Amino acid sequence: MTDEPASCAACGAMLMGRYCYRCGQDTLARPRPLRELAMEAFSETNLVDTRTARTMAALALRPGELLEAYRSGAGSRYATPIKIFVVMTALFLLVLNFSDVVIYQYVRQVEPGATVTARADPDGYTVHLIGATESDRWMQRRIEPSIDPRIPAAIQAAADRATSSRDKGNLLYELQTDREQDVITQRLADWLPNALWLLMPLYALLLTPLFGRNRLFLEHAVFAMWAHALAFGLLIMLALINKFNVGMPAWPLVIPYLGYFAIAARRYYGERWVQVGWKAVVHTGLYVLMVLIPAAVLVSLSALDIDAFMAYVRS
Length: 315
Known about the structure:
Layout: H1 34-45, H2 50-61, H3 65-72, H4 81-99, E1 101-110, E2 117-120, E3 127-130, E4 132-141, H5 150-161, H6 165-211, H7 217-242, H8 254-269, H9 273-302, H10 306-314
Antiparallel strand pairs: 1-4, 2-3
Helix pairs in contact: 4-7, 5-6, 6-7, 6-9, 6-10, 7-8, 8-9
């Protein structure tokens, strides 16, 4: 006991225990064996610990409890909202890699036993493919190649036979847009972790007019982090299901998402069922229309080959 300092070496405050109440300094933070230091570092930096596991269980089974605990000052039982968001983002990306599921993929395949042919439409911007199917796949198993090689060959053959510069330019630009689809697919996967940090404040901003302008923005930001973690949890389950080529679409996830949103918002914001019900629908619609769709458009524009586009316009 005589070896313990009477005051904090960092700020000078009188000590009442191991940690300084004023600055949080650990009075036992001195050179220690490497083994102890490594164990402490792991316990403080690992993604999934006992508290995180308890948090995941509450996130899945008790909507709104994490938010209520955080606001009431009992948040020490659970991981912080930021850690929940980071852990769920990391788990989502890990599951995507494990399951070989991609967020988005544009697929063109030749129908069984068909011979594919291409024809430029007189409107100047449509290309008709006979004997081929196309689809936009969200959260489905990756298909390689996403575009059957026979389809670009048919389009190129049609371009070689074209008798007008307009038809030729239309067909050649169709080949260019098919090449850009692979870029869009890759960028959606690469940019997602960074984009979410930009989109999440916009999610919180849209909560402000619906659930109270007089609340602190941080309250809405905490709800936004919780909601994104919930969405990742649902997408993780979808990816694990579609790993086995079930082909389950993503849109049914909107139903449990809205249900969890309403339950959590009722506990967190203290509003009635009818209010949180329509506000959940309105907020989700606004987020899709004003944030997610514009973000997807920006990703598409980032893959645009300006020179090829201008050549198409001139033709």
